[in-house]
Amino acid sequence: MLFSHILNAHNIWNSRILGKAAEYKVWQIHPIQDWGDIHYENQRSSFEITTNAADFELRIDYENAEGRLFTNTLQDILFHIINHSTHHRSQIAMNFRDNELEPLSLDYIFYKR
Q: What is the dihedral of CA 84, 90, 93, 99, to 10 degrees?
């Protein structure tokens, strides 16, 4: 459930930045076999956003899941996407440990090695 949520939130935030409707609901569950494709599209979209950004201080107006209006900078939203994912991946790691399983390392440098 949490991993689907991470994917959904990334899609929702990218959609807000691009001013289009999100493809997924916040807590929508995806089959494991779809995770790779959703992740790829999220990363592709984020890469497109960052590559084409002329101003990371650009203010983005959006509506949250409860229908409240907010404004944040592109820079803050991009940081939130990463921070949100880290938070929930840590929860997943704790769930692994609670079930006597060793989670994969979350350290970025290990991923890049």
A: -100
Total-model pTM:
0.90
Residue 62 DSSP SS3: strand
Q: How far is CA 19 from the centre of its chain?
A: 16
Give Cα separations from 81 to 11, 52, 99, 101, 106 (angstroms): 9, 18, 28, 27, 16
The dihedral built from the CA positions of residue 13, 62, 79 and 75, taken in this order, carries a sign that is positive
CATH number of 2-112, picked from 3.40.50.2000, 1.20.1050.10, 2.40.260.10, 1.20.120.450: 1.20.120.450
- 8 A C-beta contact, residue 38 and residue 23: no
Distance of alpha carbon 2 from alpha carbon 31, whole angstroms = 12
Over the stretch 38-61, which tens digit does the pLDDT of each residue have? 999 999 999 999 999 999 999 999
